[in-house]
Amino acid sequence: MLIAQISDCHIRDHEGWFGRLVDTTETLGQVVEHLLALEPAPDVILATGDLTDDGTPAQYATLRDTLAPIAERIVPLPGNHDEGPAFRLAFADLLPVDVAVDHCSYVVDRYPVRLVGLDTSLPGRHDGLFDADREAWLEQALSADDRPTLVFTHFPPFDTGLVFMDQAGVSNADRLRATIERHPHVRLLVTGHLHRPIQTTIGSTLVSTCPSTGNQINLDLHPDRAAAIDEPPAFQLHRWDGERFITHTGLVRDPAAVRTVDLGGYAAEVRRRYEAGEPFTK
Ligand SMILES: [Fe+2]
Ligand SMILES: [Fe+2]
What is the CATH number of the domain that holds 146? Predict the structure, then answer.
């Protein structure tokens, strides 16, 4: 099973903090084109929050237009830049009928890996909360089935070292980590929010944050500095091979500016030796 992940698209129609850095509608369009060209094609495409900057109907309309070529594979979750009611309205065709009432959490059960979406965003807030209601929901969702499971959520439940991002993170992250640890069949926990690829573990569960399809956050662990940076738009591919997840990060650039060297001849020679059982001598 191949699971793509896009995150933090931040579709905007005004100049906010990051307005002059990149055109996020344009970069999301480039990522969509890139995903469409992938072979094999991803079975699903998780969209892990901050899909718009302000959660307005106009921004969701632009978002849905841009996502239209891959819409049927999108599994959407809100982030702190989204607005719950407008988000549910914008994705009414893709959200299941049994989505949680007070938060946009739900389970997708139709694949070899269960997909459990946990929404910890709060109305009118830029931080998140793993409260008793969400804890009970997640415990029930994970206890219901012990098949291999991927949990997707917006806020990472750990300190990343990017201090200003950590300070407006999800409260009760320790309780979320404890819930994951009680369920080792959660083989992968993926998040957005950080605008960078970051990996850690919770118990035996691999944890990964996804870069943005727009601007990235600069890798600078100095506690007093913070910057956005025009590193390329990106996505992740989580490949489930039946035993484990293997996570790839893909960078997306203007196809006209990309230079490649065709390694087809070399790959053919490697395949020939592999199939003939010949050693890979220099
Ligand atoms: Fe974001
Ligand atoms: Fe966020």
Answer: 3.60.21.10
